[in-house]
Amino acid sequence: MGLTFDTPVECLGVSPLGDPAAYRIRGAVIAIRRADSRQILVY
């Protein structure tokens, strides 16, 4: 998945145990676990 500059990312919520978290990105809702989110690179 790729994002362009200035793409809004909204955290919709976190599961009761804290993992995963749900995000709205360009109209899609995705759930990302902490272990996976550590692999995300921001330039």
TrEMBL record:
<dbReference type="InterPro" id="IPR007167">
    <property type="entry name" value="Fe-transptr_FeoA-like"/>
</dbReference>
<dbReference type="Pfam" id="PF04023">
    <property type="entry name" value="FeoA"/>
</dbReference>
<protein>
    <recommendedName>
        <fullName>Ferrous iron transporter FeoA-like domain-containing protein</fullName>
    </recommendedName>
</protein>
<dbReference type="InterPro" id="IPR008988">
    <property type="entry name" value="Transcriptional_repressor_C"/>
</dbReference>
<feature type="domain" description="Ferrous iron transporter FeoA-like">
    <location>
        <begin position="1"/>
        <end position="42"/>
    </location>
</feature>
<dbReference type="InterPro" id="IPR038157">
    <property type="entry name" value="FeoA_core_dom"/>
</dbReference>
<keyword id="KW-0408">Iron</keyword>
